[in-house]
Predict the structure.
Amino acid sequence: MPRLLRAFSVAALCGLLLSGCFEADRRLVEGVIEESEAPSFYEAPDPLEPGPPGELVRSEPIASTMTGSVAWRVLYHSRDLNGVDILVSGVVVAPAGTAPAGGRPVVSWAHPTTGSAPRCAPSVGADPFDFIEGLRALLDAGYVVAATDYPGMGAAGPDSYLVGTNEGNSVLDAARAARAIDEAGANDDLLLWGHSQGGQAALFAAQDAAAYAPELRLEAVAVAAPATDLAALLERVMADVSGITLSSYALQSYSTVYADRGATLESLLTPAGVAATPKMASLCLIGQNSAIHDIAGPLVGNYFSGDPATVDPWATLLAENSPGAVPLAVPLFVAQGDTDTLIDPATTRSFADHECAIGSEVTYLPIADTGHGLVALRAVDRVIAWFDDVRAGRPVDSHC
């Protein structure tokens, strides 16, 4: 931002504060300033020195954080599904003040779909905290919150949309990055919390935590309306504009990540779908929704040429990226709204049943009169209370 414009913005902010403005006014002005200056933060050093997963490349304070908290934008090392060293961005938020003896536990948050292109990352916008559902309650409960953007969003990197290992590793490494910021006061205790796409990410993080990040003491994982049976999900959403939008993110991602396994768009989509998919995948769900829908609208009924649940390699890849292959070593909380039209409530309940059958400890919370967008916000108080019970060793309700 030019120096004069920044000075004007700061002066305007001071005027707002002196006139007794609300916290939202302060955060908005500071967030606009930071958003204009953020792009260079995401650029990889040249040359990039290799680093272990979770090692910070850089961090910077975020002034527009909530009152009573401190926050940082972070750029850190992670690993993709092939073990390649990649950079991932995100944010870390902690309660203000000195951490208690022993430090603060970390909740690593996995966000729902915002898009799949770099500029769609939650940390890039003027308010990078909007997409951390339940942030205030988590901070008030004494948690440090780490929130990854996922690989390929914010910082350049491999596609990650519904690629379980890429997402899950970035969720775990965000917690490692939080521990590297001394002022956050984070310790090794870890809890996972995710919504929708983030539910799938959190579940993969939970499955892989012991092998991938053994120094973290994973205690529990909570998900809201998680993407679990991916083939069923694509079948459910393929007949409307929103579904085609989400499908474009997944199919573009898989066609690049799994190109060596024959995941070509031509093997699953109509010629019109093949042409439109990269265009849709370059747009963000927030802020560019109408532009995506303009492309997706004419494709309703003319997008898929085959069934992703039966056409290989797609069927195999979707199964590999559906969580639930192994029992979880920690308790699982699953929340689901009963009027959700994106994630089928019956599919989520079936996933909870499956987890019980393979030996996971499951608490299941159906939420009445709640659709996809509100389920995490309506569940978060129960999730925090459940986290407290699990950490204290108190009995919790069992779905099993």
Summary: Strands lie at 56-61, 69-79, 85-95, 104-110, 144-148, 186-195, 217-224, 332-337, 362-367. DSSP finds twelve helices and nine strands in the chain.
